[in-house]
Sequence to fold (724 residues):
Amino acid sequence: MFTLTLDPPEAQPRLAVITIDRAGEKVNTIAPELFPEILEVFAAIEAAGGVAGIVLISGKPDNFVAGADVEVFARASGRGEIERFSREGHRILDKIAGSPIPVVAAIHGAALGAGLELALACSYRLATDSPKTVLALPEVMLGLFPGGGGVSRLPRLIGLRESLDLILTGRNVRPRRARRLGLVDAVVEPEALLMAARAAAAALATGEKTARKEPPQDMTRTLLEGNRLGRALIFRQARQQVLKKTQGLYPAPLVALDVMSRGIELSLAESLALEPPAFAELATGSVSRALVSLFRRSNALKRQSVAGPDGASIEGKATERLGLVGGGFMGGDIAIVAAEKGIETRIRDVAAAPLARALGHVHKYFDRKGRSIGARNVFKPRSKVSGGLTLAGFQTMDLIIEAVPESLPLKQEVFAQLEALAPRTTILASNTSALPIAAIGARLAHKDRLIGLHFFSPVPKMPLLEIVRAPETSQATIAACLRFATQIGKTPIVVADGPGFYTTRMLGFYLMAALEMILGGATIEEVDRGARKIGWPVGPIALLDEVGIDVGAKVAKTLAEAFPGRISVPDSVDMFLGQERFGRKSGRGFYLYPTKGKKKVDPEVYSFFKGRVEAKVRPDPEELGERLTMIAAMEAVRCLEEGILASADDGDIGGVFGIGYPPLRGGPFRHLEELGLEVVVARLSRLRERYGEAYAAPQLLTELAAAGRTFSSLDRKDGQSHAR
Fold:
């Protein structure tokens, strides 16, 4: 992984270049087996003699170091092994930080987690002015904290408040902001990285440059961070914000705060010593294990393939030209993620106004991004998007995605036009969220190229792509869409066709159960607070307002027709629609959205629920949240039972990444397994007695519980398997 290149002995100053390039991997990651190699490289530099400066650079085209290898945590036998890994990593980084020879980190591409901590141990850091270069400490997303020196070295380099922001959120930092923060010392063009790094190493060696040891100074930092009382205030405010955001369900940010608050009062060496035991404790906890499991399974899904008739994997055709039928924000969002990955994209709408909105949305997105990473870096993807009022040019598309309003006759008409126009090799996809794909393409002569591509809003941020295979969809079509998902950076799950597919069906039952709770006497606040207490990122009623009550009503009615007796749409929904209460987009729904100030529940909406009686004894919000979560999980089980899902892994990733099933549970199936299937069946029996048939246990669940088996023991419907 580490290649050493030494200048000739006569060079003045003589420099060493260490190239990081993990063989057989697309990105560099840090693993314990690599530690001896690092030590060997530094021993070789010391043995060579006369080396005045060292440059650390990646041999990968668009990646510095993407962090620690998460397989380390999956394979570890226990806390002790993880703590030993952490301590050994500290020993290596301490050697780099204490090197008498200045070490320059030359960063191009992602420097994440342990990769950024490696750079923090260096004397000097350069980053390229490239959209591919990003720096972050995202360990909190895996239920961890930057335990390789991050919580100790970062505050001493850029200051306490800025460090807390990066560590507690895991947010990405672009090169220009990194320079302003003091996270990197210089930003250079990608082509000049090695030359600039060598120049910096030489300047450090000769004393022309000195390594910065303290954060950039300002008045606020001097007043607050320069004394113990000020630091205590910063930590107290940070803790309050964490508890408000996480409901105290995620221990990692709280542990990070504890280690930082203690360590900042100690020497660097004493602070660093606090990290390994705290890190190991988190890594073996249930929350981190669930989040790491999601990360591993998501990566596995990105590598999934489909088999042809002979059993060999089919190579999916790349999408070079994409057509979008239907503008609006969804069409604009899909165009954005495609264009960012170099795909030529054209939007068609029948009216000028929605087309203009879609193109305007694209331009605004790239304008905003240009301000953070440089207009030059976003001009090329922005130029990939065009639009028009006709289907001119759609004959050349590899993939066409329909994104018109949720009307079956309208979608059928659009697909009839597309089939008459597009070559036989063009894939025809619908972005519908609930209508069966087979019904949409019922009139097509060539149904093998028909498929569903269900995106989630906002598309640039949501990681999931739900690929819906209709009964006659070909394996080649699925393979091409899996490759398209990889091209645009999404995690794909392949599900069978049916009303609502998987994610929308699961979400619909969850949302309608929340409305039933309000009808039964719970308040909107109690229902939303209860869901958040369990770990849902937003309450169901607030989510319905965000999605749009009109959109939610269409989906719910589609599901009610498909599953009579199992799901019902309260009459109150039509009253919302009659008053044009569509949610946030109309300024009012269940909540009111004033132009200034926070949203608040509109008490008038309770009158829409006929027969509602205010509960005499206030329900426990946490119990409401648990009931809602169980409703969602049971619908996931039914989707697996019916073959909508190919595996429990797909269901876990789809539930978390698509609709926000509490991530700390690892997805609905992992959640049920952690509780114990027999325990879940018994709890459902009690809930059924109190609240009705909505809590009836699916047959698959009762059979597995009786047999002492788990969902993970089931084979994938397509014969594949993923890491759990």
